[in-house]
Amino acid sequence: MYKMVCMATTNTATILNIKTDKKLKAEAKKVADDMGLTLTTVVNSMLKQFVREKEITFSVNEYPSPMLREAIKEARAEYEAGELEIFSNVEDLIADLHKP
Q: Which residues constitute the domain of residue 79?
């Protein structure tokens, strides 16, 4: 079930030109159509949320990323080789970070 709220506003519309992948646009349009929405409504909703919350949430399908997987692999190797310094408290860690 989907719920949609519409608000009447003064017509202060402007055109926003963006570049996106053709396949992505087609898929997004299909989802929006299935929900009874237009892409304009979807984009405006996302922009309003962005302005209101001043944040963007991204979903990642591949997690961890290849770069993060490599970093984890290197960190594990350093840990297993005993090359990491272990701190018993935050104060010691912070002091070590401030060393020249």
A: 66-97
Tell me the C-alpha distance between 39 and 16, whole Å: 12
Residue 6 in domain? no
- Can you spell out the DSSP letters for 70-83? HHHHHHHHHHHTT-
pLDDT tens-digit profile of 16-69?
A: 888 999 999 999 999 999 889 999 999 999 999 999 999 988 776 667 778 888
How many independent structural domains does the chain possess? 2
Does a cis peptide bond (omega within 30 degrees of 0) precede residue 66?
A: no
pLDDT tens digits along 73-97: 999 999 899 888 888 989 999 999 9
